[in-house]
Amino acid sequence: MTGRTPRILIVGSGFAGIGMAIALRRRGLTDLVILERAETLGGTWRDNRYPGCACDVESVLYSFSFEPNPEWSRTFSPQPEIEAYLQRVAETSGVLPFVRFGEEVTGATWDEATHRWCVTSTSGTWQAEHLVVATGALSDPVPPAIPGLDTFAGPTFHTAAWDATVPLDGRRVAIIGTGASAIQAIPALQPRVAHLTVAQRTPAWVMPRWDRATPAWRRALYRRLPVTQRLARLLQYLRHETLFVPFRHAGPRRLAEWIIGWHLRRQVRDPELRRRLTPPYGIGCKRLLLSDAYYPAMTQSNVSLVTDAIVRIRPEGLETADGRTHAADVLILATGFRPTDPPLAPVIRGRDGRSLADVWRGSPAAYLGTTVAGFPNLFLLNGPGTGLGHSSVLMMFEAQFAHVLGVLDLLARRNARTAEPTAAAQAAYVRWLDAAHADTVWSRGGCRSWYLDSTGRNAALWPHGVGRFRRMTRRVRPDDYALDLT
Ligand code: NAP
Fold it and tell me: Within this chain, do residues 302 and 434 fall inside the same structural domain, yes or no?
């Protein structure tokens, strides 16, 4: 086990950090440490424990390609199973002993003299040749900026910081937000509570989910003939790649809107409620959601949909623009995260002393979403422009792992100490990426989503199919990297 000068230091032990450590170890690179601020691993899959929390990508695809799991209980497995899967993978692959828990990173500065990253954390200082930031896009929950939030008399908590000690059964609960987290929590809460007030600012497109328990025969088949699970994964991968088409092309988008609108028409008979649940923007502009249970829950007599803007939170409930107060005993914030504002960006300082936040000025950009000019030997996993609206982000992570290994190989081959993308290569890549976003639904769909950064640029998503990112990251182009050979 290394001391405080590991060759590679990884921040975060979610899917990205654990997967990266496995990929490094398989390459024989074992001089590494993973710093994790919490006491257990799992990242967003550890933190999000709200009722109904599950993956909205099929488990066969939302798992590592190198660690298939024949035992998934459902098509879309619930959060506890996903967290347990990652824990098991960390144990069986041997990376668990490399994780240092309770280590919150507070700063990371490139030291030009030693050619190392000087990283400060709860326990002191670390020095590493390479720094891998695997802190994820969904790590810090964002409360809504609504006046009076702290005046609410009852318990208030975010879906990503669920307080399971608060009794909900038979109580009046208000939930703010109708994004991916809310539409999973609402059907789970509705049968338990006396009344559920759902405060919606913008309706979501919701498509059928068709979640099923995995039959025993299928699990047995996957166990005995692993190639069948690989085939199922391949088919899901190809199916998801076609889901991307409507995001780029208006014709298929209108067809998708009609088909998915049918789900709403079928499940919500009341025309007025249906009208209020109908999104006024193109499908995919905000994240496309999956649920079979959300609309039926919204039609129940103990649920009220509030669409007037919340002007204030009062001790007794939500006050809306129409002057009404919607009384509640418990307030749940399903208000999401801010992925285009990475939490460590202000404290990671590169070659010239400027931080990532200084360089980005509210609009994150990186070469292949992974490396940044002026920040030698720094790797961002799930970095700018690597999110997905249509498939499993774990495939993007795996492509990034391959790219990181490729850069390390390049360094070894050239006997170099540091690598960073050239400013020209990064600028050309970012120009290409931005141009590819121009004709997507995210830019033209008529909505404002969290995919867009403070300048209105899409800094979150990859604008093509996953296969293209894999191809582009697989081979490192040496000319795109500046190496320090001293
Ligand atoms: P989200 O998609 O950002 O949704 C936040 C919701 O809160 C939106 O409906 C938003 O309305 C609303 N909101 C925010 N501030 C508000 C305010 N001041 N007043 C009223 N409403 C407000 O967050 P999320 O649902 O937590 O999901 C975040 C991401 O997590 C997802 O997109 C997905 O990537 C991931 N996720 C994945 C799964 C999964 O199954 N894999 C499950 C849950 C989450 P507007 O739309 O008007 O902004």
Answer: no
User: Cα separation of 459 and 148, whole Å?
Assistant: 31
Which of the listed residues 333, 348, 368 is the one where a domain comes to its end?
Answer: 333
194, pLDDT greater than 60: yes
Q: Is the shortest distance between the CB of 179 and ligand 1 below 6 Å? A: yes
User: Which residues sit opposite 196 in a β-bridge?
Assistant: 173, 303
In a domain, 360, yes or no: yes
What is d(CA 150, CA 154) in angstroms, rounded to the nearest whole number? 10
pLDDT digits (tens, 9 = 90+) for 376-404: 999 999 999 999 989 999 999 999 999 99
Residue 243: which pLDDT band, with cuts at 50, 70 and 90?
confident
On whether residue 2 sits in a domain, the answer given is no
| Ligand 1 lined by 392 (C-beta under 6 Å) | no
Burial class (CB in 10 A: 0-12, 13-18, 19+), 432: exposed
Distance (Å) from CA 324 to ligand 1 centroid: 24
- Residue 104 resides in a domain: yes
Domain harbouring 368, CATH code: 3.50.50.60
pTM equals: 0.96
- The answer to whether residues 272 and 251 belong to one domain is yes
Q: How far is the CA of 96 from the centre of ligand 1 (A)?
A: 31
Whether residue 29 contacts residue 8, with contact meaning beta carbons closer than 8 Å, is answered with yes
- Asked which of 333, 354, 379 is the last residue of a domain, the reply is 333
